[in-house]
Design brief:
This protein has 119 residues and is an alpha+beta fold. Helices cover 39% and strands 20% of the residues.
């Protein structure tokens, strides 16, 4: 009987590092059905990724109604929630992702000083 081996997040990270794929952003967007807020978050994240991370991102949209076990595993307490898995450090964002500057700073495309100077 053959046992299936499950990759750990450490193995996924090491695989990405070995390929020299440091610039690739791995994002997970947790939503609740197709509510207006969820659809707006999906559209905003896709638009921002296409504009700022063209061909350098992996986005997976997860509906917590359809996959509640994934929401529990990631300890999702509000939606929409975006989790940036890679590159490290891991970051979480809650909301519809309409604040472009906050999104760019959060995923590491703009320096933190930009936020301080503009608030």
């Amino acid at each position: 009987m053959e046992m299936k081996r499950v990759k750990t997040s450490t193995e996924e990270f090491e695989k990405a590092a070995a390929k020299g794929d440091w610039a690739k952003h791995v994002l997970r967007l947790y939503v609740t059905g197709m509510t207006p807020k969820s659809t707006q978050a999906i559209a905003n994240v896709r638009k921002l990724c296409e504009k700022h991370l063209t061909d350098r991102y992996e986005l997976k949209v997860i509906d917590i109604y359809q996959q509640p076990e994934l929401a529990k595993e990631e300890q999702i307490i509000a939606t929409p929630t975006l989790i940036k898995k890679l590159p490290l450090p891991l970051r979480r964002f809650i909301g519809d992702m309409s604040d472009t500057e906050r999104f760019l700073v959060g995923i590491g495309l703009k320096p933190q000083e930009f936020m301080s100077a503009n608030q």
